[in-house]
User: What shape does this take?
Amino acid sequence: MPAFERVAVVGLGRWGSSLHAALVGAGVSVEAVREIGTAQLDAELIWLCVSDAAIEKAAAQIVAKRSRLTGRVVVHSSGVHASHELAAARKAGAKIGSIHPLMTFPTRKPVPLKGVPFAVEAAKSLAPKLESLVRLLGGKPFSVPAAGKAKYHAAAVMASPLLVALASAAHEAASLAGLSPADAGKLLEPMMLATIRNYFQRGPAASFSGPFARGDAETVSLHLQALGAHPSLQRIYQALAQYAVQTLPATNKRLLRETLAQDGTLNSGQ
Assistant: This one.
């Protein structure tokens, strides 16, 4: 028997649409909730797939709708907020938790959940049931303590949306060199994909190359000068370079730090 036979999915946006499809595919009875005020909400598990800012309000609306939630479970899908955002539901008798899919959902087209990691945060008495549901959906549950969620979610954001931002910045820098967006994409793609593959197969140290690995401060200085008229790109380059020099096997670290500090200040107009 599944951990929960009936689930109410509140919010059918990008993530909620994928969750709804996965639950239906797993044979779970699902109530798709677009408006809490008109929903039945008689499921054993009420799963909020709303924005982070809307969690507390949604919990309050559920309590206003049903008054007592004894015997039910209410969870949210936020990666940054802990389950205490559902305090209103807990006071009404519900058990509470959070389940966050560590995956990107760029559109409302359902994304298969097989193999997707899910961060589960809940009391020890509830966590096993939530983990069982994650496995039913094909996911891989892991535990994140409430106190660590913001750092965990920051890592997730750096690994996906900010990775997209970094790729976009690289495309912009290439366009400043005279390449068309289409050409920039074709030229950068093989190197970016190889770098990501190397990182996960070999680790960061064995994947690190280029002017920082060589300790080529003159080349780094030329980069910063070239980006001086484009402060946003220069700041991105400088921040990543400083982190690389601090944490990765760069050569001539002292000279590189001095170059980044001097040129980063002079060319940003500060």
